[in-house]
Amino acid sequence: MDMTQTEKQQMMATAPIPGLIARLSVPTIISMLITSFYNMADTFFVGKLGTSATAAVGVVFPLMSIIQALGFFFGHGSGNSVSRKLGAQKLDEAEHIASCGFFSALICGAVILVCGLLFLDPLSRALGSTETILPYTKQYLSVILLGAPYMTAALTLNNLLRFQGSAFYAMIGITTGAVLNVILDPIFIFVFDMGIAGAAWATILSQLLSFIMLLIGIKVSNCIPLRIRHMKYLPQTIRQIFGGGLPSLCRQGLASLATVALNLAAGPYGDAAIAAMSIVMRISMFAGSTMIGFGQGFQPVCGFNYGAGNIKRVKEAFWFCVKTATVVLVVLGVLGFIFSGDLVAIFRKEDLEVIEIGTLALRTQCVTLPLTGWIVLNNMLFQTIGRTLPASVLASARQGIFFLPAVLILPYFFGILGVQCAQAAADVAAFVLALVLNRKLMPTL
């Protein structure tokens, strides 16, 4: 039997920090890795169809990022507020915010579905398709769009569960869909001979299963119920969801824009360059998901104790997470650097040019990977305690404020090397920004 709300609140307020963070972060890390795995599985199986098909999955990824951005916007926007309201013992307000976040996500996903299908061709081109990639992009994208409403809402449900201390149920919901995705991908692509469209159908059917499982998780885990009658767009509710979710929207939304810019920057160097950077992005995202998942285990502890006025416990949790994350990322960075060529070859071993371009790009990102722990955890600290402006600036740094100029300017001077090094350069700049912002925040707490 799952814990009651009272027992969850007691756990957040008194349980030892290392064990509590581990309890909340391990399921969340698994959830984030599984979320990354959806697109990674498509990239692996579609890689058997050819370089242009592999590149098409990378071209569609920005649209997937937009769906994720909205899901995290409403999930973090409502979840951050819910955790603080529970800490302040304001259950009615928490119920209202949670319902508004969930149903708003469904509506926004439906808007993406309609607009995407109406403008399928220009959207495919705007995402970075070349003439050889375009047919594959349209096949894949037209199916992915069908799942937009419940894919957006599923991410919101995932975050509502973990912000209420039920990360285990969030993990079960995401993992169930991922297992189905791995099973369906080869069946649809090769057995049913559906090609790249088969990969898309496998993804949206798997995401539908995750959505259903997460809805069940809300009910069986004694989380706040979601009711349409609670969906009242009062100015106060909008401000709270917007304030808590804006940094996530900036982070995920700019990830989408960054991917488009990366595809356009790699385009002049051929389909192999687009495919290589697409593969590297998947691998880096998989590694980064470990960090984000760990940080998301920190957020409910931070939000609850900040709402309860226990600032000492907030700081203890933050510094524990920073130290742990840095050690783990150093190990991952070293392993990734050593085995970078082998990792890229997993996806496209038939194309030596893809492997060559991807290996150097992955190694540059592995060098700066340990810096991302500090960046992400500061971002989540600012976001969870309601410091919207600095949180949004920091969330925009890695793949927006610093990455976009880097990926546009560096190739002009260094050619394809500039494309390969752009993310590493942005990470260094974002790390320095996080140092400055943290130094200003800590004395004010």
Automatic annotation (TrEMBL):
<feature type="transmembrane region" description="Helical">
    <location>
        <begin position="198"/>
        <end position="220"/>
    </location>
</feature>
<keyword id="KW-0813">Transport</keyword>
<feature type="transmembrane region" description="Helical">
    <location>
        <begin position="168"/>
        <end position="192"/>
    </location>
</feature>
<comment type="similarity">
    <text>Belongs to the multi antimicrobial extrusion (MATE) (TC 2.A.66.1) family. MepA subfamily.</text>
</comment>
<dbReference type="GO" id="GO:0015297">
    <property type="term" value="F:antiporter activity"/>
</dbReference>
<feature type="transmembrane region" description="Helical">
    <location>
        <begin position="53"/>
        <end position="75"/>
    </location>
</feature>
<feature type="transmembrane region" description="Helical">
    <location>
        <begin position="317"/>
        <end position="340"/>
    </location>
</feature>
<keyword id="KW-1003">Cell membrane</keyword>
<feature type="transmembrane region" description="Helical">
    <location>
        <begin position="20"/>
        <end position="41"/>
    </location>
</feature>
<protein>
    <recommendedName>
        <fullName>Multidrug export protein MepA</fullName>
    </recommendedName>
</protein>
<keyword id="KW-0472">Membrane</keyword>
<dbReference type="GO" id="GO:0046677">
    <property type="term" value="P:response to antibiotic"/>
</dbReference>
<feature type="transmembrane region" description="Helical">
    <location>
        <begin position="96"/>
        <end position="120"/>
    </location>
</feature>
<keyword id="KW-1133">Transmembrane helix</keyword>
<dbReference type="Pfam" id="PF01554">
    <property type="entry name" value="MatE"/>
</dbReference>
<dbReference type="InterPro" id="IPR051327">
    <property type="entry name" value="MATE_MepA_subfamily"/>
</dbReference>
<keyword id="KW-0812">Transmembrane</keyword>
<feature type="transmembrane region" description="Helical">
    <location>
        <begin position="360"/>
        <end position="377"/>
    </location>
</feature>
<dbReference type="InterPro" id="IPR045070">
    <property type="entry name" value="MATE_MepA-like"/>
</dbReference>
<dbReference type="InterPro" id="IPR048279">
    <property type="entry name" value="MdtK-like"/>
</dbReference>
<dbReference type="GO" id="GO:0042910">
    <property type="term" value="F:xenobiotic transmembrane transporter activity"/>
</dbReference>
<dbReference type="InterPro" id="IPR002528">
    <property type="entry name" value="MATE_fam"/>
</dbReference>
<keyword id="KW-0046">Antibiotic resistance</keyword>
<dbReference type="GO" id="GO:0005886">
    <property type="term" value="C:plasma membrane"/>
</dbReference>
<feature type="transmembrane region" description="Helical">
    <location>
        <begin position="140"/>
        <end position="161"/>
    </location>
</feature>
